[in-house]
Amino acid sequence: MNQPVSSSTPTSQAEWQALATNLTLEGRAYLNGTYRWAANGETFTSVSPIDGRELASIASCDQSDADQAVRAARAAFEAGIWSQLAPAKRKAVLLRFAELIEAHGDELALLETLDMGKPINHARNVDVPATARAIRWTAEAIDKVYGELAPTPHNQIGMISREPMGVVAAIVPWNFPMIMAAWKIAPALATGNSLILKPSEKSPLSAIRLAALAGEAGVPAGVFNVLPGYGHTVGKALALHMDVDCLVFTGSTNVAKQLMIYAGQSNMKRVWLEAGGKSPNIVFADAPDLKKAAAEAASAIAFNQGEVCTAGSRLLVENSIRAEFVKLICEALKTWRPGHPLDPATTCGAIVDQAQLDRIIDYIGIGQSEGARLVEGGQRILENTGGLFVQPTVFDGVNNQMRIASEEIFGPVLSVIGFDTADEAVAIANDSIYGLAAAVWTSNINTAHKVAKALRAGSVWINHYDGGDMTAPFGGFKQSGNGRDKSVHAFDKYTELKATWLVLE
What we know:
Elements: H1 13-21, E1 29-31, E2 34-36, E3 43-47, E4 54-59, H2 63-79, H3 87-103, H4 105-116, H5 120-141, E5 148-150, E6 156-164, E7 167-171, H6 177-190, E8 194-198, H7 205-217, E9 224-226, H8 231-240, E10 246-250, H9 253-265, E11 270-274, E12 280-283, H10 290-302, E13 314-318, H11 322-332, H12 354-369, E14 373-376, E15 380-381, E16 389-390, E17 393-396, H13 403-406, E18 413-419, H14 422-430, E19 434-435, E20 437-441, H15 445-454, E21 459-462, E22 477-478, E23 495-503
Parallel strand pairs: 7-8, 7-10, 8-9, 10-11, 12-13, 12-20, 13-18, 17-18, 20-21
Antiparallel strand pairs: 1-2, 3-4, 5-6, 6-23, 14-17, 15-16, 19-22
Helix pairs in contact: 2-8, 3-5, 3-7, 4-5, 4-7, 5-6, 10-11
Protein backbone atom coordinates (compact mmCIF):
# COMPACT_ATOMS: atom_id res chain seq x y z
CA MET A 1 0.00 0.00 0.00
CA ASN A 2 1.46 3.37 -1.00
CA GLN A 3 1.95 5.86 1.78
CA PRO A 4 1.19 9.56 1.24
CA VAL A 5 3.79 10.90 -1.19
CA SER A 6 4.69 13.91 0.92
CA SER A 7 3.71 15.59 4.16
CA SER A 8 4.47 18.95 2.56
CA THR A 9 3.11 19.77 -0.87
CA PRO A 10 5.91 20.67 -3.33
CA THR A 11 6.22 24.27 -4.44
CA SER A 12 8.47 23.94 -7.50
CA GLN A 13 8.64 22.00 -10.73
CA ALA A 14 11.83 20.27 -9.60
CA GLU A 15 10.16 19.05 -6.41
CA TRP A 16 7.14 17.73 -8.30
CA GLN A 17 9.40 15.98 -10.80
CA ALA A 18 11.38 14.38 -7.98
CA LEU A 19 8.15 13.03 -6.49
CA ALA A 20 7.03 11.80 -9.88
CA THR A 21 10.27 9.90 -10.33
CA ASN A 22 9.69 7.97 -7.11
CA LEU A 23 5.96 7.41 -7.61
CA THR A 24 4.72 3.82 -7.80
CA LEU A 25 2.15 3.41 -10.56
CA GLU A 26 -0.49 0.68 -10.29
CA GLY A 27 -2.01 -0.53 -13.55
CA ARG A 28 -4.02 -3.58 -12.51
CA ALA A 29 -7.77 -3.83 -12.18
CA TYR A 30 -9.28 -3.77 -8.69
CA LEU A 31 -11.72 -6.65 -8.42
CA ASN A 32 -13.34 -8.05 -5.29
CA GLY A 33 -10.89 -6.32 -3.00
CA THR A 34 -7.62 -7.19 -4.75
CA TYR A 35 -5.51 -5.94 -7.63
CA ARG A 36 -5.21 -8.35 -10.53
CA TRP A 37 -4.37 -8.34 -14.21
CA ALA A 38 -7.07 -8.80 -16.84
CA ALA A 39 -8.19 -12.37 -17.33
CA ASN A 40 -6.98 -12.31 -20.93
CA GLY A 41 -3.56 -11.07 -19.88
CA GLU A 42 -3.77 -8.12 -22.24
CA THR A 43 -2.50 -4.67 -21.39
CA PHE A 44 -2.21 -1.23 -22.95
CA THR A 45 0.31 1.50 -22.21
CA SER A 46 -0.45 4.74 -20.43
CA VAL A 47 1.52 7.48 -22.20
CA SER A 48 2.01 10.92 -20.66
CA PRO A 49 0.96 13.80 -22.94
CA ILE A 50 3.56 15.96 -21.19
CA ASP A 51 6.54 14.40 -22.96
CA GLY A 52 5.38 11.16 -24.59
CA ARG A 53 6.90 9.05 -21.82
CA GLU A 54 5.43 5.61 -21.13
CA LEU A 55 4.05 5.61 -17.62
CA ALA A 56 2.69 2.13 -16.93
CA SER A 57 1.13 -0.99 -18.37
CA ILE A 58 -2.61 -1.01 -17.72
CA ALA A 59 -4.86 -4.06 -17.53
CA SER A 60 -7.08 -4.18 -20.61
CA CYS A 61 -10.24 -5.73 -19.22
CA ASP A 62 -12.99 -7.31 -21.31
CA GLN A 63 -16.13 -9.46 -21.02
CA SER A 64 -14.58 -12.02 -18.68
CA ASP A 65 -13.49 -9.37 -16.19
CA ALA A 66 -16.88 -7.67 -16.42
CA ASP A 67 -18.57 -10.97 -15.60
CA GLN A 68 -16.30 -11.52 -12.60
CA ALA A 69 -16.81 -8.01 -11.32
CA VAL A 70 -20.59 -8.19 -11.67
CA ARG A 71 -20.67 -11.52 -9.84
CA ALA A 72 -18.56 -10.09 -7.01
CA ALA A 73 -20.66 -6.93 -6.83
CA ARG A 74 -23.92 -8.90 -6.84
CA ALA A 75 -22.70 -11.30 -4.17
CA ALA A 76 -21.64 -8.40 -1.94
CA PHE A 77 -24.98 -6.70 -2.48
CA GLU A 78 -27.04 -9.79 -1.71
CA ALA A 79 -24.92 -10.57 1.37
CA GLY A 80 -25.87 -7.17 2.77
CA ILE A 81 -22.34 -6.34 3.97
CA TRP A 82 -22.80 -2.84 2.56
CA SER A 83 -26.35 -2.58 1.26
CA GLN A 84 -27.82 -3.43 4.67
CA LEU A 85 -25.25 -1.60 6.73
CA ALA A 86 -26.72 1.19 8.82
CA PRO A 87 -26.54 4.50 6.95
CA ALA A 88 -24.52 6.08 9.73
CA LYS A 89 -21.90 3.34 9.40
CA ARG A 90 -21.72 3.78 5.62
CA LYS A 91 -21.28 7.47 6.31
CA ALA A 92 -18.33 6.84 8.62
CA VAL A 93 -16.58 4.74 5.97
CA LEU A 94 -17.08 7.33 3.25
CA LEU A 95 -15.88 10.12 5.51
CA ARG A 96 -12.74 8.11 6.14
CA PHE A 97 -12.41 7.66 2.37
CA ALA A 98 -12.50 11.46 1.94
CA GLU A 99 -9.81 11.84 4.60
CA LEU A 100 -7.56 9.39 2.79
CA ILE A 101 -8.02 11.23 -0.49
CA GLU A 102 -6.84 14.41 1.19
CA ALA A 103 -3.94 12.63 2.89
CA HIS A 104 -2.77 11.27 -0.46
CA GLY A 105 -3.47 14.52 -2.27
CA ASP A 106 0.04 14.99 -3.71
CA GLU A 107 0.10 11.46 -5.07
CA LEU A 108 -3.36 11.69 -6.62
CA ALA A 109 -2.61 15.09 -8.14
CA LEU A 110 0.55 13.70 -9.73
CA LEU A 111 -1.38 10.80 -11.22
CA GLU A 112 -3.88 13.21 -12.79
CA THR A 113 -1.18 15.47 -14.21
CA LEU A 114 1.10 12.76 -15.54
CA ASP A 115 -1.79 10.78 -17.03
CA MET A 116 -3.85 13.49 -18.76
CA GLY A 117 -1.68 16.60 -18.80
CA LYS A 118 -3.54 19.08 -16.60
CA PRO A 119 -1.47 21.62 -14.62
CA ILE A 120 -0.34 20.30 -11.26
CA ASN A 121 -1.57 23.46 -9.57
CA HIS A 122 -5.11 22.69 -10.76
CA ALA A 123 -4.87 18.96 -10.04
CA ARG A 124 -3.70 19.60 -6.49
CA ASN A 125 -5.83 22.62 -5.60
CA VAL A 126 -9.00 21.97 -7.63
CA ASP A 127 -9.39 18.29 -8.47
CA VAL A 128 -8.21 16.69 -5.24
CA PRO A 129 -10.24 18.96 -2.91
CA ALA A 130 -13.31 18.69 -5.14
CA THR A 131 -13.06 14.89 -5.11
CA ALA A 132 -12.82 14.74 -1.33
CA ARG A 133 -15.58 17.33 -0.99
CA ALA A 134 -17.95 15.31 -3.19
CA ILE A 135 -17.37 12.17 -1.11
CA ARG A 136 -17.68 14.04 2.18
CA TRP A 137 -20.78 16.07 1.28
CA THR A 138 -22.61 13.01 0.01
CA ALA A 139 -21.59 10.97 3.03
CA GLU A 140 -22.97 13.63 5.34
CA ALA A 141 -26.29 13.53 3.49
CA ILE A 142 -26.74 9.75 3.84
CA ASP A 143 -28.76 9.85 7.04
CA LYS A 144 -30.53 13.13 6.24
CA VAL A 145 -32.58 12.03 3.23
CA TYR A 146 -35.91 10.64 4.34
CA GLY A 147 -38.62 8.54 2.80
CA GLU A 148 -42.24 9.67 2.61
CA LEU A 149 -45.68 8.87 3.97
CA ALA A 150 -48.51 8.95 1.47
CA PRO A 151 -51.78 10.76 2.28
CA THR A 152 -54.00 7.80 3.17
CA PRO A 153 -57.30 6.98 4.88
CA HIS A 154 -57.11 6.80 8.67
CA ASN A 155 -56.89 3.00 8.68
CA GLN A 156 -54.05 2.73 6.15
CA ILE A 157 -50.36 3.61 6.10
CA GLY A 158 -48.57 4.15 2.80
CA MET A 159 -44.79 4.24 3.18
CA ILE A 160 -42.48 5.23 0.34
CA SER A 161 -38.87 4.21 0.80
CA ARG A 162 -35.71 4.50 -1.28
CA GLU A 163 -34.12 1.14 -1.97
CA PRO A 164 -30.65 0.63 -3.48
CA MET A 165 -30.80 -0.64 -7.06
CA GLY A 166 -28.12 -3.30 -6.73
CA VAL A 167 -25.17 -3.30 -9.14
CA VAL A 168 -24.20 0.04 -10.69
CA ALA A 169 -21.76 0.41 -13.59
CA ALA A 170 -20.18 3.85 -13.96
CA ILE A 171 -18.26 4.92 -17.05
CA VAL A 172 -16.35 8.17 -16.59
CA PRO A 173 -14.35 10.47 -18.90
CA TRP A 174 -10.70 11.40 -19.06
CA ASN A 175 -10.84 15.17 -18.51
CA PHE A 176 -11.61 15.18 -14.77
CA PRO A 177 -10.90 11.54 -13.87
CA MET A 178 -11.27 11.86 -10.10
CA ILE A 179 -14.02 14.46 -9.88
CA MET A 180 -16.30 12.75 -12.39
CA ALA A 181 -15.67 9.42 -10.67
CA ALA A 182 -16.45 10.90 -7.24
CA TRP A 183 -19.77 12.29 -8.50
CA LYS A 184 -20.70 8.66 -9.32
CA ILE A 185 -18.93 6.81 -6.52
CA ALA A 186 -20.32 8.87 -3.67
CA PRO A 187 -24.10 8.62 -4.22
CA ALA A 188 -23.93 5.06 -5.55
CA LEU A 189 -22.14 3.81 -2.44
CA ALA A 190 -23.99 6.11 -0.07
CA THR A 191 -27.31 4.58 -1.08
CA GLY A 192 -26.05 1.03 -0.54
CA ASN A 193 -25.24 -0.14 -4.05
CA SER A 194 -22.27 -2.13 -5.28
CA LEU A 195 -20.25 -0.29 -7.92
CA ILE A 196 -18.09 -1.13 -10.93
CA LEU A 197 -16.14 1.86 -12.22
CA LYS A 198 -14.71 1.93 -15.74
CA PRO A 199 -12.29 4.85 -16.11
CA SER A 200 -11.27 6.15 -19.50
CA GLU A 201 -8.36 4.31 -21.07
CA LYS A 202 -6.79 7.77 -21.52
CA SER A 203 -6.56 8.47 -17.76
CA PRO A 204 -7.10 5.37 -15.59
CA LEU A 205 -4.37 5.79 -12.97
CA SER A 206 -6.18 7.84 -10.34
CA ALA A 207 -9.30 5.65 -10.41
CA ILE A 208 -7.18 2.55 -9.90
CA ARG A 209 -5.53 4.21 -6.90
CA LEU A 210 -8.84 5.42 -5.45
CA ALA A 211 -10.05 1.81 -5.26
CA ALA A 212 -7.34 0.84 -2.79
CA LEU A 213 -8.03 3.93 -0.70
CA ALA A 214 -11.71 2.99 -0.59
CA GLY A 215 -10.76 -0.47 0.62
CA GLU A 216 -8.46 1.02 3.24
CA ALA A 217 -11.33 3.22 4.40
CA GLY A 218 -13.49 0.15 5.01
CA VAL A 219 -15.52 -0.36 1.83
CA PRO A 220 -15.96 -4.17 1.74
CA ALA A 221 -14.52 -6.38 -0.98
CA GLY A 222 -16.79 -6.60 -4.00
CA VAL A 223 -18.60 -3.36 -3.24
CA PHE A 224 -16.25 -1.10 -5.23
CA ASN A 225 -14.45 -2.47 -8.29
CA VAL A 226 -12.40 -0.73 -10.99
CA LEU A 227 -12.03 -2.19 -14.49
CA PRO A 228 -9.70 -0.25 -16.80
CA GLY A 229 -10.01 -0.94 -20.50
CA TYR A 230 -11.61 0.28 -23.69
CA GLY A 231 -15.17 1.39 -24.24
CA HIS A 232 -15.79 -1.10 -27.04
CA THR A 233 -14.65 -4.03 -24.86
CA VAL A 234 -15.26 -3.80 -21.12
CA GLY A 235 -17.46 -0.71 -21.39
CA LYS A 236 -19.76 -2.42 -23.85
CA ALA A 237 -19.74 -5.60 -21.75
CA LEU A 238 -20.96 -3.70 -18.70
CA ALA A 239 -23.58 -1.77 -20.67
CA LEU A 240 -25.02 -4.99 -22.11
CA HIS A 241 -24.72 -7.04 -18.93
CA MET A 242 -28.00 -8.57 -17.82
CA ASP A 243 -27.12 -8.30 -14.13
CA VAL A 244 -26.15 -4.63 -14.08
CA ASP A 245 -29.10 -2.68 -12.70
CA CYS A 246 -28.00 0.88 -13.41
CA LEU A 247 -25.60 2.49 -15.88
CA VAL A 248 -24.25 6.01 -15.32
CA PHE A 249 -22.05 7.82 -17.80
CA THR A 250 -20.29 11.10 -18.43
CA GLY A 251 -18.78 11.64 -21.85
CA SER A 252 -19.64 12.35 -25.45
CA THR A 253 -23.17 12.52 -26.82
CA ASN A 254 -22.43 9.86 -29.45
CA VAL A 255 -21.32 7.33 -26.84
CA ALA A 256 -24.28 8.25 -24.62
CA LYS A 257 -26.67 7.39 -27.46
CA GLN A 258 -24.98 4.03 -27.95
CA LEU A 259 -25.28 3.22 -24.25
CA MET A 260 -29.02 3.84 -24.42
CA ILE A 261 -29.21 1.31 -27.24
CA TYR A 262 -27.24 -1.24 -25.20
CA ALA A 263 -29.56 -0.78 -22.24
CA GLY A 264 -32.56 -1.44 -24.47
CA GLN A 265 -30.91 -4.48 -26.02
CA SER A 266 -30.23 -6.01 -22.61
CA ASN A 267 -32.31 -5.69 -19.46
CA MET A 268 -33.71 -2.13 -19.69
CA LYS A 269 -31.26 -1.09 -16.99
CA ARG A 270 -31.66 2.45 -15.69
CA VAL A 271 -29.42 4.80 -17.68
CA TRP A 272 -28.25 8.24 -16.58
CA LEU A 273 -26.18 10.24 -19.05
CA GLU A 274 -24.28 13.49 -18.77
CA ALA A 275 -23.10 14.23 -22.29
CA GLY A 276 -21.64 16.97 -24.48
CA GLY A 277 -22.01 20.71 -24.52
CA LYS A 278 -21.53 23.82 -26.63
CA SER A 279 -22.30 26.29 -23.90
CA PRO A 280 -23.16 29.94 -24.68
CA ASN A 281 -21.56 32.70 -22.61
CA ILE A 282 -23.69 35.81 -23.26
CA VAL A 283 -22.23 39.26 -22.63
CA PHE A 284 -24.49 42.32 -22.84
CA ALA A 285 -23.15 45.83 -23.27
CA ASP A 286 -24.30 46.70 -19.75
CA ALA A 287 -22.29 43.93 -18.10
CA PRO A 288 -21.19 45.26 -14.69
CA ASP A 289 -17.45 44.72 -15.33
CA LEU A 290 -16.25 43.96 -18.85
CA LYS A 291 -12.70 43.15 -17.74
CA LYS A 292 -14.00 40.62 -15.24
CA ALA A 293 -16.33 39.16 -17.87
CA ALA A 294 -13.41 38.85 -20.28
CA ALA A 295 -11.19 37.23 -17.65
CA GLU A 296 -13.86 34.65 -16.84
CA ALA A 297 -14.61 34.07 -20.53
CA ALA A 298 -10.91 33.34 -21.05
CA SER A 299 -10.93 30.93 -18.12
CA ALA A 300 -14.14 29.34 -19.41
CA ILE A 301 -12.39 28.26 -22.62
CA ALA A 302 -8.78 27.75 -21.47
CA PHE A 303 -9.16 26.06 -18.08
CA ASN A 304 -8.21 22.39 -18.28
CA GLN A 305 -7.05 23.12 -21.86
CA GLY A 306 -10.67 23.59 -22.88
CA GLU A 307 -11.29 19.89 -22.23
CA VAL A 308 -14.42 20.69 -20.24
CA CYS A 309 -18.01 19.71 -21.05
CA THR A 310 -19.27 23.07 -19.77
CA ALA A 311 -16.58 25.12 -21.54
CA GLY A 312 -17.94 28.50 -22.63
CA SER A 313 -17.03 27.74 -26.23
CA ARG A 314 -19.64 30.05 -27.80
CA LEU A 315 -19.09 33.64 -26.69
CA LEU A 316 -22.12 35.75 -27.63
CA VAL A 317 -21.30 39.45 -27.39
CA GLU A 318 -23.57 42.43 -28.01
CA ASN A 319 -22.31 43.99 -31.24
CA SER A 320 -21.92 47.49 -29.78
CA ILE A 321 -19.04 46.25 -27.58
CA ARG A 322 -17.84 43.25 -29.59
CA ALA A 323 -14.62 44.73 -30.97
CA GLU A 324 -13.64 46.07 -27.55
CA PHE A 325 -14.51 42.80 -25.83
CA VAL A 326 -12.53 40.65 -28.27
CA LYS A 327 -9.45 42.74 -27.43
CA LEU A 328 -10.12 42.21 -23.72
CA ILE A 329 -10.41 38.45 -24.28
CA CYS A 330 -7.11 38.29 -26.14
CA GLU A 331 -5.45 40.25 -23.35
CA ALA A 332 -6.95 37.97 -20.69
CA LEU A 333 -5.71 34.87 -22.53
CA LYS A 334 -2.11 35.99 -22.03
CA THR A 335 -2.35 34.44 -18.56
CA TRP A 336 -3.34 31.10 -20.14
CA ARG A 337 -0.19 30.19 -22.07
CA PRO A 338 0.64 26.45 -22.22
CA GLY A 339 3.62 25.33 -20.18
CA HIS A 340 5.05 22.29 -18.42
CA PRO A 341 2.22 20.81 -16.32
CA LEU A 342 4.52 20.06 -13.36
CA ASP A 343 5.44 23.74 -13.07
CA PRO A 344 3.11 25.21 -10.41
CA ALA A 345 2.99 28.46 -12.40
CA THR A 346 1.49 26.75 -15.45
CA THR A 347 -2.18 27.49 -16.08
CA CYS A 348 -2.68 25.63 -19.37
CA GLY A 349 -1.31 22.11 -19.71
CA ALA A 350 -1.02 19.41 -22.36
CA ILE A 351 -3.81 17.96 -24.50
CA VAL A 352 -4.65 14.45 -23.35
CA ASP A 353 -3.40 12.52 -26.41
CA GLN A 354 -2.44 12.83 -30.06
CA ALA A 355 -5.94 12.01 -31.33
CA GLN A 356 -7.45 14.85 -29.31
CA LEU A 357 -4.72 17.27 -30.38
CA ASP A 358 -5.32 16.35 -34.03
CA ARG A 359 -9.05 16.95 -33.55
CA ILE A 360 -8.42 20.43 -32.15
CA ILE A 361 -5.98 21.36 -34.92
CA ASP A 362 -8.44 20.07 -37.52
CA TYR A 363 -11.22 22.28 -36.13
CA ILE A 364 -8.94 25.31 -36.18
CA GLY A 365 -8.43 24.65 -39.88
CA ILE A 366 -12.17 24.16 -40.38
CA GLY A 367 -12.87 27.52 -38.72
CA GLN A 368 -10.51 29.28 -41.10
CA SER A 369 -11.96 27.50 -44.14
CA GLU A 370 -15.49 28.46 -43.06
CA GLY A 371 -14.57 32.15 -43.11
CA ALA A 372 -14.19 32.86 -39.38
CA ARG A 373 -11.44 35.35 -38.51
CA LEU A 374 -8.60 33.92 -36.44
CA VAL A 375 -7.62 36.64 -33.98
CA GLU A 376 -5.63 34.73 -31.37
CA GLY A 377 -3.61 31.50 -31.13
CA GLY A 378 -4.32 28.61 -33.45
CA GLN A 379 -0.92 26.90 -33.37
CA ARG A 380 0.61 23.81 -31.85
CA ILE A 381 3.57 24.82 -29.69
CA LEU A 382 6.36 23.31 -27.56
CA GLU A 383 6.75 20.39 -29.97
CA ASN A 384 10.40 20.04 -29.00
CA THR A 385 9.31 18.80 -25.55
CA GLY A 386 7.63 15.74 -27.03
CA GLY A 387 4.40 16.97 -25.43
CA LEU A 388 1.01 17.87 -26.87
CA PHE A 389 0.37 21.60 -26.50
CA VAL A 390 -1.84 24.03 -28.41
CA GLN A 391 -2.40 27.75 -28.00
CA PRO A 392 -5.80 28.95 -26.75
CA THR A 393 -7.55 30.10 -29.90
CA VAL A 394 -10.12 32.83 -30.63
CA PHE A 395 -12.26 33.14 -33.76
CA ASP A 396 -14.35 36.26 -34.41
CA GLY A 397 -17.05 36.73 -37.02
CA VAL A 398 -18.53 33.29 -36.31
CA ASN A 399 -22.13 32.32 -36.97
CA ASN A 400 -24.11 29.39 -35.62
CA GLN A 401 -24.05 27.54 -38.94
CA MET A 402 -20.27 27.10 -38.79
CA ARG A 403 -19.04 23.77 -37.49
CA ILE A 404 -16.77 25.44 -34.94
CA ALA A 405 -19.94 26.94 -33.42
CA SER A 406 -22.19 23.89 -33.61
CA GLU A 407 -19.89 20.92 -32.89
CA GLU A 408 -18.16 20.14 -29.61
CA ILE A 409 -14.40 20.51 -30.08
CA PHE A 410 -13.29 19.79 -26.50
CA GLY A 411 -10.29 22.05 -26.67
CA PRO A 412 -9.34 25.71 -26.15
CA VAL A 413 -11.12 27.07 -29.23
CA LEU A 414 -13.48 30.02 -28.72
CA SER A 415 -16.12 31.16 -31.23
CA VAL A 416 -17.24 34.81 -30.90
CA ILE A 417 -20.75 35.51 -32.22
CA GLY A 418 -22.37 38.94 -32.29
CA PHE A 419 -25.98 39.83 -31.44
CA ASP A 420 -28.08 43.01 -31.19
CA THR A 421 -31.04 42.14 -28.94
CA ALA A 422 -31.78 39.85 -26.01
CA ASP A 423 -34.23 37.85 -28.12
CA GLU A 424 -31.56 37.32 -30.76
CA ALA A 425 -29.06 36.20 -28.11
CA VAL A 426 -31.52 33.65 -26.74
CA ALA A 427 -32.31 32.35 -30.23
CA ILE A 428 -28.62 31.89 -31.04
CA ALA A 429 -27.89 30.30 -27.66
CA ASN A 430 -30.76 27.81 -27.95
CA ASP A 431 -29.97 26.95 -31.58
CA SER A 432 -27.92 23.93 -30.57
CA ILE A 433 -28.42 20.22 -30.03
CA TYR A 434 -26.81 20.73 -26.63
CA GLY A 435 -28.13 22.29 -23.43
CA LEU A 436 -25.61 21.77 -20.67
CA ALA A 437 -24.71 25.23 -19.34
CA ALA A 438 -24.86 28.94 -20.08
CA ALA A 439 -23.95 32.31 -18.57
CA VAL A 440 -25.44 35.81 -18.77
CA TRP A 441 -23.57 39.05 -18.06
CA THR A 442 -25.76 42.11 -17.47
CA SER A 443 -26.49 44.79 -14.86
CA ASN A 444 -30.23 44.62 -15.60
CA ILE A 445 -31.97 42.14 -13.28
CA ASN A 446 -34.95 41.92 -15.63
CA THR A 447 -32.70 40.97 -18.54
CA ALA A 448 -30.83 38.48 -16.37
CA HIS A 449 -34.02 36.78 -15.24
CA LYS A 450 -35.79 36.71 -18.60
CA VAL A 451 -32.77 35.47 -20.53
CA ALA A 452 -31.83 32.85 -17.93
CA LYS A 453 -35.42 31.61 -17.88
CA ALA A 454 -35.49 31.33 -21.67
CA LEU A 455 -32.19 29.46 -22.00
CA ARG A 456 -32.49 25.70 -22.50
CA ALA A 457 -29.63 24.68 -20.25
CA GLY A 458 -29.22 22.70 -17.06
CA SER A 459 -27.08 25.34 -15.36
CA VAL A 460 -27.22 29.11 -15.92
CA TRP A 461 -24.76 31.46 -14.21
CA ILE A 462 -25.33 35.20 -13.84
CA ASN A 463 -22.32 37.55 -13.96
CA HIS A 464 -19.86 34.71 -13.45
CA TYR A 465 -18.98 31.44 -15.17
CA ASP A 466 -19.04 27.90 -13.80
CA GLY A 467 -20.38 28.47 -10.29
CA GLY A 468 -22.27 26.39 -7.78
CA ASP A 469 -21.26 23.67 -5.36
CA MET A 470 -22.36 20.22 -4.24
CA THR A 471 -25.77 21.54 -3.16
CA ALA A 472 -26.94 22.14 -6.75
CA PRO A 473 -27.65 19.40 -9.30
CA PHE A 474 -25.53 19.21 -12.44
CA GLY A 475 -26.83 17.99 -15.79
CA GLY A 476 -28.26 19.13 -19.07
CA PHE A 477 -31.17 19.49 -21.45
CA LYS A 478 -31.57 18.04 -24.95
CA GLN A 479 -28.58 16.01 -26.17
CA SER A 480 -26.50 17.03 -23.18
CA GLY A 481 -28.30 14.22 -21.36
CA ASN A 482 -30.20 13.69 -18.13
CA GLY A 483 -27.20 13.35 -15.84
CA ARG A 484 -28.11 15.22 -12.62
CA ASP A 485 -24.92 14.60 -10.69
CA LYS A 486 -24.32 16.29 -7.32
CA SER A 487 -26.84 17.31 -4.62
CA VAL A 488 -29.46 15.06 -3.03
CA HIS A 489 -31.08 14.76 -6.46
CA ALA A 490 -28.24 12.41 -7.41
CA PHE A 491 -29.58 9.91 -4.86
CA ASP A 492 -32.63 9.42 -7.06
CA LYS A 493 -30.42 7.96 -9.80
CA TYR A 494 -29.24 5.11 -7.61
CA THR A 495 -32.44 4.16 -5.79
CA GLU A 496 -35.82 2.68 -6.60
CA LEU A 497 -38.95 4.00 -4.90
CA LYS A 498 -40.85 1.28 -3.10
CA ALA A 499 -44.41 1.82 -1.89
CA THR A 500 -45.46 -0.31 1.09
CA TRP A 501 -49.11 -0.26 2.16
CA LEU A 502 -50.30 -1.35 5.57
CA VAL A 503 -54.07 -1.74 6.07
CA LEU A 504 -55.06 -1.68 9.74
CA GLU A 505 -57.77 -3.98 11.03
